[in-house]
Each structure stands twice: as structure tokens, then as C-alpha cells.
Write a structure and sequence with these properties.
Layout (H helix, E strand, L loop, with lengths): L1 E3 L10 E17 L23 E9 L2 E6 L11 E8 L3 E9 L1 E3 L9 E17 L5 E7 L25 E5 L9 E5 L2 H12 L6 H7 L3 E5 L6 E5 L7 E10 L2 E11 L8 E8 L14 E3 L6 E5 L4 E6 L12 E13 L13 E7 L5 E4 L9 E8 L4 E7 L1 H14 L3
């Protein structure tokens, strides 16, 4: 079984460090096949060893749970749900860097012949998402892409990249304001570059999407190599984050200001936008996770398991002795099963908050992701954060595992596999 946090990335950059001192709590029924007593017409009779009932309710809270950590080779980030840009360092995951690549294009190809160019800037609207320390300054660079924004296969991945020109079109150092819904980040770009686009459209040298993309492929926005602050989320909706030209026109003896926007395309196939998310884990316990086939046991990680969804690090949970339930006399059935997971104290904060939920998937022995798991109502199976007793430092995730455990037991009974 595999755990990770959701995002279309798919899953944002949420971070979890689990202590492996967690448990699976089972409630079972055991029907003794040798009993001479019958069930009543009204239902099952619950008893214990002191009664004559042929039905026993058994609680088990000592079943071994095996934890480990591994890393996906890459994750799909084509047309992600937000722009992610920034960099920070983490003692467990190393240096994590997110950068964004996307195509931009106008909706019209006409500028008044009397218009006068003023300036050009990249406008990025905050979307309330961030991770790590926003009190530290960030420096972003906007670079011009030198090849078409097109994946080699069907999708872009977290490890994908495109070639860019070395000299930035513009850079800005700033203090982030990710929770300011009305605020946007403005990065002023090269005056020469802006003038070129403006005049080519104004002089009818560019009259179509193909002509525009021949001249300008798109941009990459990335954090400075020396940054250690935060990764920020920005809206990718067409009206929020744009490349904007400011110009003016004389009207009735007055100078009137206007702007001309080039917008993102987040619906095309193949994708015209993706986030690249990479990490340098040298010097950390997770440095050994060089490919998807390698698993780090909690035994070798100070009794910890890890999740960092943006870079594809996930927790794997196994139940190696589940078949021992068959040692219980009689016909065994699962009434309920709860998995409890405890995040390690001191590894979360307001800068790196715990996610409210995360998803549960099946995974095979080669660490390939299988199908997502569902509950009896057909809803996605989730782990839910419980903080009701947080003042006593009793914070945990709970997962309803009844259907999954029953399925494993049935599989074990029928064909010897779990």
C-alpha cells in the first residue's frame, strides 16, 4: 500500500515524516465451526470465551506494520493546477527547487499604429499556496525558452526541462505575500525585448499564432541558485498570470494608458505548461533513493518514513503477518480495521503544515503504482488528520482499512498471495 498527498502536479509539495511506531487496529468476528449452538433468527450473537455463543468478537492492536520509503522516477506535471516557483533546503529532503515553463500568446494581433510602447512585465497572481519560510527574500529569474513547448512523449514530467537563453529577460528580489489574494508579483522585463514584440505586432510582421510562436516560444521562471526561502504557488488561469505590455495613446489631448496581454494555455494537448521539481538529497538519509526500485526501510531511517509529494517521495506500508489471523480458530471475518499514523513531533509547523488528507493507493513489490483504493460507498480512500487532542501532542492520521484488509485475507485464503 502506498501513501502520498494529492495534487495535480498532482499533489502539491506537502511534507510528512511518519514515526513508524504506528499500528493497525482490527475488530474481527470468529465463528466457531465446532459449536453446537445456532445463530438466532434475529442476527448474530456476540460472546466471549465464558459464553456458549459460537460467535466471538476479537480486538487486535499488535499486528506488525512495516514502513519504508521510496521515490518515483518522475511524476506527470503537464497542465498542473498551479504555477510553482521557488527553492528551499530541508534536512530530510535536501535542496528542493521548483521552476515553471509555459507558452504565452495574445488573443488578438493588432495594436494601434499611434500607440507608444512603455514597458513589459511578467505578472504572477498569488494563489495562497506556499511551503517553508516566506519571511526570507526570494529572487526569481525570467528566461526566454529557445525551443517549442512540446513534450518528447505525451506528457511533461517533474524531471522534464527545455532549453533557455542564458541571459534573463528580467529578475526580481522580493518578500513574498502568498496570502494576499489581491496581490500579484510583477517582474519587469527587458525593454528591448518588449519593444520587439510590440513593434512586430504593431507593424503587422506578426499576424497569427504561428508567427508569434516562431518569434517567442515562451518563458521559464526559476528561483536563484542561492535562494533558501520558500516555494510559492501562482494562479495559472488566463486572466491572472500574464505577460503584459503597457502602452499609451493620445486621446482628446490626453495621454491614456493601456495594456496588451499574452496569456497562458493550460488546456491544449499536448501540454503547453509544466512544473519542473527536483531535489539534491546529497548528505541526507534519502540520498540512496536514486531510482524507483530502491526502498529505504524505517529500520535504516531512525524509525521514520517520509512523504514529499512534489519530488515523488512516498511511504510504503506492508502487513507481513496478516495471514497469522488464520491461526484464530473458526471462520474469521473483518468487522473493522483502522490504520493509525503518527507524524513525528517537531517536523511540522506553520511553515510546513500537515496536510488535512492524503490518498491511498495499492503498489506492487516493484514499487509500481496500482489503482487508487476506495471505501464501501465508492469514495476515494483517504487518510484524515485528527488534531482534537493537539494540546496533548496526540496528533494522528486514521485510515479506514476494513475493505482492503478483508480483500487481502480473501486473496490469502484463496491463492496464497497478500
Amino acid at each position: 500500500m502506498n501513501l502520498h498527498t494529492k495534487n495535480k502536479l498532482h499533489y502539491g509539495l506537502k511534507v510528512l515524516r511518519f514515526t513508524s511506531l504506528n499500528g493497525l487496529f482490527l475488530i474481527l468476528t470468529a465463528i466457531s465451526l465446532s459449536s453446537c449452538h445456532n445463530l438466532t433468527d434475529d442476527g448474530l450473537i456476540v460472546g466471549d470465551e465464558e459464553t456458549n455463543s459460537n460467535l466471538k468478537v476479537i480486538k487486535i492492536d499488535t499486528l506488525t506494520v512495516k514502513f519504508s520509503t521510496y521515490k518515483f522516477d518522475s511524476l506527470i506535471t503537464s497542465n498542473a493546477s498551479r504555477i510553482l516557483i521557488g527553492q528551499y533546503e530541508d534536512p530530510s529532503f535536501g535542496k528542493i527547487k521548483a521552476s515553471s515553463f509555459f507558452e504565452l500568446k495574445p488573443t488578438t494581433y493588432s495594436i494601434d499604429e499611434d500607440a507608444v510602447f512603455d514597458s513589459i512585465c511578467m505578472v504572477l497572481k498569488y494563489d495562497d499556496y506556499y511551503i517553508n519560510d516566506t519571511l526570507q527574500p526570494c529572487t526569481f529569474h525570467v528566461r526566454r525558452i529557445s525551443e517549442n513547448v512540446k513534450p518528447e512523449e505525451d506528457y511533461f514530467y517533474t524531471t522534464s526541462s527545455l532549453t533557455t537563453y542564458a541571459e534573463p529577460l528580467g529578475s526580481k528580489t522580493f518578500l513574498p505575500r502568498p496570502l494576499s489574494e489581491a496581490d500579484s508579483l510583477h517582474i519587469k522585463l527587458s525593454h528591448l525585448f518588449g519593444t520587439q514584440i510590440f513593434e512586430k505586432i504593431q507593424d503587422n510582421e506578426i499576424n497569427s499564432e504561428d508567427e508569434f510562436l516562431e518569434f517567442f516560444k515562451g518563458v521559464q521562471i526559476e528561483a536563484d541558485e542561492n535562494d533558501n526561502s520558500a516555494i510559492l504557488g501562482f494562479s495559472n488561469t488566463t486572466s491572472d498570470s500574464v505577460l503584459r505590455i503597457y502602452f499609451s495613446l493620445e486621446e482628446a489631448g490626453e495621454i491614456v494608458s493601456y495594456h496588451y496581454d499574452m496569456k497562458m494555455d493550460v488546456t491544449s494537448t499536448p501540454a503547453k505548461f509544466f512544473n519542473r521539481i527536483v531535489s539534491d538529497r546529497n548528505g541526507t538519509d534519502l540520498a540512496i533513493l536514486s531510482n524507483q526500485s530502491i526502498t529505504l526501510s524505517d529500520v535504516d531511517a531512525n524509525k521514520l518514513a517520509f512523504i514529499q509529494s512534489g519530488i515523488g517521495i512516498v511511504t510504503k506500508i506492508e502487513f507481513p503477518y496478516l495471514k497469522d489471523i488464520y491461526d484464530i480458530p473458526g471462520q474469521v471475518s473483518v468487522l473493522d480495521a483502522k490504520l493509525y499514523l503518527n507524524p513525528k513531533l517537531g517536523t511540522y509547523s506553520t511553515l510546513q503544515p500537515l496536510p488535512e488528507t492524503f490518498e491511498i493507493y495499492q503498489v506492487n513489490r516493484k514499487n509500481y503504482l496500482g489503482s487508487q483504493m476506495y471505501d464501501t460507498a465508492g469514495n476515494e480512500l483517504m487518510a484524515y488528520l485528527n488534531t482534537e487532542n493537539s494540546e496533548f501532542q496526540n496528533i494522528y492520521y486514521s485510515v479506514d482499512m476494513g475493505i482492503y484488509i478483508e480483500g487481502l485475507l480473501q486473496s490469502e485464503y484463496e491463492d496464497g498471495t497478500a
